[in-house]
Write a structure and sequence with these properties.
six-stranded antiparallel sheet; mainly beta; Elongation Factor Tu (Ef-tu), domain 3; 239 residues
Length: 239
């Protein structure tokens, strides 16, 4: 966690990456931010964001060649073409057979489909067996984030302080007082969840209600009317 000296203002977006994805900064007033990259669409200030939806082309893929303990590169045939470094700074976990239960950070890889070499930051800790060990790749949660849709396809990852141009880098707020689009009638001190009716909004979390399965993201500090923006004590899961 960084508390000062970071390269990009929390009130600026940048076309260049100036921090490592996921870098955490904490302000003296208690607000916490994670460094993020917008996806293919612009982001709005005050709307909950979601991480990129998982790609089935990167799910349950057999390792192309054996990898001994200490190795830092594997070969994988994806289910479809992947762009260069699509999973850079994200994660590879072994989901089945030899090595299952282990997770590794991805350093980078070229574009391709078949026998793609993937470099890892972390050395392999349990040997992988060719055509037997299965791996799955997931983008970094703060990579290519989108406005949270009414039907979520991944997890909530924060709220931008500012409008963000597509593919730009910015600070995504994950904790502390945050202004968030409101859907419904909020109650001070009660929990809110991502809305299933308005993209990027929060709505009341009624634990006795029906279909209350969306992720909780905080509690209410100050109520404003539906369609307006309320002040939420943000608590994005995982931060």
């Amino acid at each position: 966690m960084k508390t000062g000296g970071f390269a990009q203002s929390i009130f600026k977006a940048s076309s260049r990456q100036l921090e490592e994805l996921g870098t955490i900064v904490s302000l003296k007033d208690g607000r916490v931010f994670a460094y993020a990259k917008a996806g293919a669409s612009n982001l709005a200030a005050g709307k909950i964001t979601q991480s990129a939806a998982p790609d089935s082309n990167a799910l349950n893929k057999a390792v192309g060649a054996a990898v001994a303990v200490g190795g830092t590169q594997i070969t994988v045939t994806f289910g479809g073409a992947v762009t260069e470094n699509a999973y850079k700074d994200g994660y590879m976990h072994v989901n089945d057979a030899n090595g299952e239960g282990y997770i590794y950070r991805v350093k980078g890889h070229p574009a391709g489909t078949s026998s793609v070499p993937v470099d890892l930051y972390d050395p392999i800790r349990y040997a992988l067996v060719a055509s037997t060990s299965e791996v799955t790749f997931t983008k970094h949660p703060q990579d290519s984030v989108i406005v949270y849709p009414t039907t979520g396809t991944s997890v909530p990852v924060g709220v931008p302080l500012i409008a963000v141009t597509a593919s730009y880098y910015f600070w995504n707020q994950v904790k502390g007082p945050a202004v968030v689009l409101t859907d419904g009638t909020l109650v001070i001190g009660q929990h809110v969840r991502v809305s299933d009716g308005v993209a990027g909004a929060v709505e009341p979390l009624d634990r006795d209600g029906v279909d209350e399965n969306e992720a909780g993201v905080g509690t209410v500090l100050q109520v404003n009317a539906t369609t307006e923006y309320s002040l939420i004590m943000l608590a994005i899961p995982g931060y």
